[in-house]
């Protein structure tokens, strides 16, 4: 079988992970959540008590910690320094601090290299989701798309996932992540060759079918 890399970018709350996993299942592809890699480093930074402004310490943690991530869409598992952080990476505190990790250039270079290694290890048959996959990590992907949704829909979806969290906290988290992450990657406007799918008024199945149609056009 030939290469089939599906690169999927987009902000929080657009249904990116659910879509990426289901597309991977239907096409029998691996799945890589690149955001989980940054979140895992943020977990280790928190465990070690490093200051969020200490870029040298964070870089050292990122480069020296053994980070492993599963690529089975049905069995997501993330470990760092021997600790399973699969659940911890989704905690609101990690969401609030992950941008401090993601904006450090040396950390980004290190993790991007790891992402490319994972893509290659799966014979370039993989769905990769994140914020700069179509432009930086895998610009040569056969399918490149940007998944978007209006802010209210994004906030509503994320609040439903985190039912115990105050709506205002969810709003601040999503808008804050957008502001901070936009300083290091463009994930709101599609570049040349990238297809935009607006999921605001679409069901998950409809979004998945749209992605499968794009993949089908590439054999």
Automatic annotation (TrEMBL):
What does it catalyze? CMP + ATP = CDP + ADP; dCMP + ATP = dCDP + ADP
Identify one Pfam family in the record: Cytidylate_kin
Q: Which GO terms describe its biological process?
A: pyrimidine nucleotide metabolic process
- Its protein name is Cytidylate kinase
Determine if Signal is one of this entry's keywords.
no
A Gene Ontology cellular-component term? cytoplasm
Q: Which SUPFAM superfamilies match?
A: P-loop containing nucleoside triphosphate hydrolases
């Amino acid at each position: 079988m030939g290469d089939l890399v599906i690169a999927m970018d987009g902000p929080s709350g657009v249904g990116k992970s659910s879509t990426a996993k289901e597309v991977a299942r239907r096409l029998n592809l691996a799945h890589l959540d690149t955001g989980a890699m940054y979140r895992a480093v943020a977990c280790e930074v928190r465990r070690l008590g490093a200051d969020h402004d200490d870029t040298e310490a964070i870089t050292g943690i990122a480069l020296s910690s053994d980070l492993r991530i599963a690529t089975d869409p049905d069995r997501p598992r993330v470990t760092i320094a021997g600790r399973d952080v699969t659940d911890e990476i989704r905690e609101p505190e990690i969401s609030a601090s992950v941008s401090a990790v993601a904006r450090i250039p040396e950390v980004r270079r290190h993790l991007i290299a790891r992402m490319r290694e994972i893509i290659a290890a799966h014979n370039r048959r993989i769905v990769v989701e994140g914020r700069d996959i179509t432009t930086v990590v895998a610009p040569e992907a056969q399918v490149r798309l940007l998944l978007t949704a209006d802010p209210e829909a994004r906030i509503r979806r994320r609040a439903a996932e985190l039912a115990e969290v105050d709506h205002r906290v969810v709003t601040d988290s999503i808008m804050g992540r957008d502001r901070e992450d936009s300083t290091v990657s463009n994930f709101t406007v599609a570049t040349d060759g990238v297809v935009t799918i607006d999921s605001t008024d679409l069901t998950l199945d409809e979004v998945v079918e749209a992605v499968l149609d794009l993949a089908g056009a590439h054999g």
